[in-house]
């Protein structure tokens, strides 16, 4: 597939890297020659210097031969116009990064459809939603939702003194048959494991568990964790992510008490007017005295979402020292995320990864409906559609010769319940399955779920 990526910043670079690793023919367009030099030096892609809204520049990128255009510059107008031009030139699929939310877009004179855009990605909105999910599940390092939020994948780190250390997957599930859950992946050091029933839990394992929202508290308790209620939250940074996080919290938890710290006086005044149920304070988000004075020690959660990711890391670690139960930092550099875990940060979110996930969904194949990844886990989580007559429908999972590096986590049956998968699970035609897959086995998805 030939794909043109417009914008070679942090987001564009990551999208181009991902696509080139999948052996796609990638052209990257940017008006900054130095940025393009970095792209050429690190990635196996072609580059074109110029403005992504210029017809001649797009011609140089061989736009007429492209199957997809992904516009991810930092300027909404450039992304919208570039996609509109690509659509007019016959490009089948166009994707645009936009900072305007879905609700705001609905009020606009022109919609994304008017620009010929197939998918508008709002990374800040996605990051804010992830922050709220993490806050709602205080003991989880990650929270992903599936099947219209009827299933959750939670990440839990196992303490060395946990009673479950040494237990096998099968033994753990047998402790309480009333808790509906299965461990679907383990991050052990830097190694990703898709476990069978005999795999045993080790100290410091990072478990990824598929369960139902009603069972999360019981699962975390079983693993020796306390799933406390988060009610008092401090947000450091009045950025788009910070504002949307505050809005989501107050919508989902009216009883919560939120304080938001914003350094710029004019911005703080505007946010105070826009967020009447949030206490907005003007001040330096890295000022320890200010944060302590404003009740840092009494906070259940601390969220650092300023535009300075090093400051986000430092303030979260400082909040941890003051006894805050849950800390979440926004990190744009994915390489920082493993380091943040080693330093003791509870969770991290990345606006950049949100764009990559959405782009992946378009080129994985027609039977893949959505894609998710988890920080540090060398596996993708795919939602796949089972076509009539597909090999995956030919019997219970334990009787199928499935490739190594592929594990079915759950099944949304077309004419039945949503099931957390076991060896006895039988996927039927038109069912939707949640599948963990290592990079070496991604190529098997189409052949297993297609005809």
Automatic annotation (TrEMBL):
Protein's recorded name: Trk system potassium uptake protein TrkA
Entries under InterPro entries matching the protein: K_uptake_TrkA (IPR006036), NAD(P)-bd_dom_sf (IPR036291), RCK_C (IPR006037), RCK_C_sf (IPR036721), RCK_N (IPR003148), Trk_Ktr_HKT_K-transport (IPR050721)
Family matches, as Pfam families: TrkA_C (PF02080), TrkA_N (PF02254)
Occurrences of domain RCK C-terminal (ranges): 141-225, 369-451
SUPFAM superfamilies: NAD(P)-binding Rossmann-fold domains, TrkA C-terminal domain-like
Any one of the GO CC terms: plasma membrane
Natural source organism: Longimonas halophila
Keyword Ion transport found: yes
Domain RCK N-terminal residue range list: 1-121, 230-351
Cross-referenced PROSITE patterns: RCK_C, RCK_N
Stored PANTHER family: POTASSIUM CHANNEL PROTEIN 2-RELATED-RELATED, TRK SYSTEM POTASSIUM UPTAKE PROTEIN TRKA
GO MF, any single term: potassium ion transmembrane transporter activity
Keywords noted in UniProt: Ion transport, NAD, Potassium, Potassium transport, Transport
NCBIfam families: PRK09496.1-2, PRK09496.1-4, PRK09496.2-6, PRK09496.3-2, PRK09496.3-4
């Amino acid at each position: 597939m030939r794909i043109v990526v417009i914008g070679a910043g942090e987001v564009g670079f990551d999208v181009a890297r991902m696509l080139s690793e999948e052996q796609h023919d990638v052209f990257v367009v940017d008006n900054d020659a130095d940025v393009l030099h970095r792209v050429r030096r690190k990635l196996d892609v072609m580059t074109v210097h110029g403005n992504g809204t210029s017809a001649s520049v797009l011609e140089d990128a061989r736009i007429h031969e492209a199957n997809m255009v992904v516009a991810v510059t930092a300027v909404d107008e450039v992304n919208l116009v570039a996609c509109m031009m690509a659509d007019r030139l016959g490009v089948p699929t166009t994707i645009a990064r936009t900072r305007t939310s879905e609700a705001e877009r609905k009020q606009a004179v022109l919609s994304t459809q008017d620009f010929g855009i197939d998918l508008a990605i709002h990374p800040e909105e996605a990051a804010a939603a992830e922050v709220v999910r993490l806050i709602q599940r205080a003991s989880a390092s990650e929270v992903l939702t599936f099947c219209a939020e009827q299933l959750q994948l939670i990440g839990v780190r196992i303490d060395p003194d946990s009673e479950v250390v040494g237990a096998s997957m099968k033994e753990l599930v047998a402790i309480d048959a009333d808790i509906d859950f299965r461990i679907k992946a383990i991050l052990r050091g830097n190694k990703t494991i898709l476990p069978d029933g005999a795999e045993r839990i080790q100290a410091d394992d990072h478990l990824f568990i598929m369960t139902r929202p009603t069972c999360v508290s019981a699962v975390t308790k079983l693993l020796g964790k306390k799933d406390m209620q988060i009610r008092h939250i401090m947000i450091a940074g009045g950025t788009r992510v910070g504002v949307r996080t505050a809005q989501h919290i107050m919508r989902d938890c009216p009883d919560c008490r939120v304080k938001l710290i914003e350094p710029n006086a004019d911005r703080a005044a505007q946010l105070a007017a826009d967020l009447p149920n949030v206490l907005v304070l003007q001040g330096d988000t890295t000022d320890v005295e200010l944060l302590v004075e404003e009740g840092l020690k009494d906070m259940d959660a601390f969220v650092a979402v300023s535009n300075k990711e090093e400051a986000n890391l430092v303030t979260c670690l400082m909040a941890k020292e003051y006894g805050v139960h849950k800390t979440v930092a926004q990190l744009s550099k994915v390489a920082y995320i493993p380091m943040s875990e080693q330093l003791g940060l509870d969770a991290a979110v990345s606006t950049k990864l949100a764009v990559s996930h959405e782009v992946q969904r378009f080129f994985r194949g027609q039977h893949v409906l959505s894609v998710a990844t988890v920080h540090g886990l060398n596996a993708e989580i795919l939602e796949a559609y089972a076509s009539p007559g597909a090999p995956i429908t030919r019997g219970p999972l334990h009787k199928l010769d499935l490739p190594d590096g592929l594990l079915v986590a759950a099944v949304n049956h077309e004419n039945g319940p949503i099931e957390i998968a076991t060896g006895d699970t039988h996927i039927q035609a038109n069912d939707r399955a949640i599948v963990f897959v290592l990079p070496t086995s991604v190529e098997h998805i189409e052949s297993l779920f297609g005809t």
